[in-house]
Amino acid sequence: MVRKNIKGAGHLSVFIYFFLFLVMVSLLWIFRNTKAGHSLNLLLLIHDVKLFVIVLFLGGGIIFISVKLFDMYDSSGLTKNEFMEMSKSLNDASPFTLALTSSLAEEFLFRGLIQYVGGYYVQAIFFGFMHWPSGKKLIIWPVWALLSGSVFGLMVSYTGSIWGVVIVHFAINLTSLRELRKDHIQ
Question: For residue 83, which of 121, 36, 135 has the smallest C-alpha distance?
């Protein structure tokens, strides 16, 4: 099954991610005086700069591994072609804007709300399912998302802050989108 290219899908994706991020921030503000709201608001702080730097270095390792895994898995070029085909409809949006809005929205939703309410394993499983592809050749994508979501959840649990994983997630998305855009243009 190949997804149809929808004109303006990139802008629509940015809008949806930004709206989801605004909903998450609004919920934090509405429930700020409750015990749950106070706990979730603590995620917005950087409690320990050393841990924050460690998280960023660990995130760099995740980015490196994801690029190497993709290259190993993509020896035939089929996977990259599928990703490129799937991402064509997003070409109307800037990779930076799409990476920023998706990382903010997904981290506030998964590592913020879902991890707090449902727990570490639930957020990782939902994160993996959210990245389910349309083609069988891309099955590595939700598996890697499940593993990355697990590491991201541990990072948030260990540091008590969401910002490290937002930065790492943004870097992964930006790297991927720019690579796909570069290959698509060539």
Answer: 135
Is residue 1's pLDDT more than 90?
no
Per domain, the residue ranges of the chain are: 9-185
Residue 102 CA to residue 96 CA, distance in Å, equals 10
Helices (H), the chain: 9-30, 35-42, 49-73, 78-87, 95-107, 115-118, 120-130, 140-159, 163-185
Mean pLDDT of 62-77: 63
pLDDT in tens, 105-131: 899 889 988 898 888 899 999 999 888
Buried b (16+ CB within 10 A) or exposed e, 67-85: eeebeebbeeeebbebbeb
Residue 171, both tokens: 């870097």
SS (H, E, C) 66-85: HHHHHHHHCCCCHHHHHHHH
Calculate the CA 39 to chain-centre distance.
22
Angle at 141 between CA 62 and CA 77, to 5 degrees: 100
Enter the tokens of residue 66: 């994801």
pTM: 0.74
Instruction: State the greatest distance between any 2 C-alpha atoms of the chain, in Å, as a whole number.
Output: 54
